[in-house]
Amino acid sequence: NAGVTQTPKFQVLKTGQSMTLQCAQDMNHEYMSWYRQDPGMGLRLIHYSVGAGITDQGEVPNGYNVSRSTTEDFPLRLLSAAPSQTSVYFCASSTGLAGGPGETQYFGPGTRLLVL
Amino acid sequence: AQTVTQSQPEMSVQEAETVTLSCTYDTSESDYYLFWYKQPPSRQMILVIRQEAYKQQNATENRFSVNFQKAAKSFSLKISDSQLGDAAMYFCASLETSGSRLTFGEGTQLTVNP
């Protein structure tokens, strides 16, 4: 298993541009999520999905869209990039089953995004 | 809502010695999970150890162990026989079983001195 993969590893955008961060997992996990990590702060939840076709907002959803058309993929879209979105983005997945081993979240390697 | 607090932005330890990283949390639920994650310079998030709140016994994984004080809402990580490869940012996190959303602390940067 490749686990959780993210592309690209690094991206530079200009203010106002749009782009999609890709995330895929091959563990048949129902639950997937996107976090951003900023200096001096822990990871903050952007959006999450408890299964194909179901998404919900996390702590910092503004400026981001997500969709979940398949179990494997959970792309994150920046509609109009802003310098405040400069960050490291992590995708994670788990089985999402309360009380089970699925409570362990598996993280991707991260995407570094710089918005100029 | 959950909150997780790590009050030590930086810690250092001599190789082969023991270090303890602190974490406190707050939750209104009785059933939850607690985690410690390690983030080396590669930025990958690596699960170090997990603790189920309903278990009284402290979790242990080789050189890593926790001191879980449920009443005090404290969850510290002890690293024994520290190695150079333990140098990383360490994050404490909580997960309420009513949802599937992890809440992270601010992180503690651990330096291991040779």
Summarize the SSE layout with pairings.
The complex is a heterodimer of chains A (116) and B (114).
Chain A: E1 4-7, E2 10-13, E3 19-25, E4 31-37, E5 43-51, E6 54-57, E7 64-66, E8 76-78, E9 87-94, E10 106-107, E11 111-115
Parallel strand pairs in A: 2-11
Antiparallel strand pairs in A: 1-3, 3-8, 4-5, 4-9, 5-6, 7-8, 9-10, 9-11
Chain B: E1 3-5, E2 10-14, E3 19-21, E4 24-26, E5 32-39, E6 46-52, E7 60-61, E8 64-69, E9 74-79, E10 88-96, E11 102-104, E12 108-113
Provide structural commentary:
The complex is a heterodimer of chains A (116) and B (114). By secondary structure, chain A is mostly beta strands. Chain A is 0% helix and 48% strand. Chain A is built from no helices and 11 strands. In chain A, a hairpin with a 5-residue loop joins strand 4 (31-37) and strand 5. Chain B has 114 residues and is mainly beta. In chain B, a hairpin with a 5-residue loop joins strand 10 (88-96) and strand 11. In chain B, 33% of the residues are buried.
Key terms:
heterodimer, A: 116 residues, mainly beta, seven-stranded mixed beta sheet, four-stranded antiparallel beta sheet, globular, B: 114 residues, six-stranded mixed beta sheet, 12 strands
Task: Please give a quick description of this structure.
Chain A has strands at residues 4-7, 10-13, 19-25, 31-37, 43-51, 54-57, 64-66, 76-78, 87-94, 106-107, 111-115. Chain A is an all-beta fold.
Q: In percent, how much strand structure appears in the residues of chain A?
A: over 45%
- What's the end-to-end separation of chain B, in Å? 41 Å
Beta content of chain B: over 45%
Proportion in helices of chain B: under 10%
Number of helices of chain B: 0
List unreliable stretches of 5+ residues of chain A: none
How would you sum up the major sheet of chain A?
7 strands, mixed
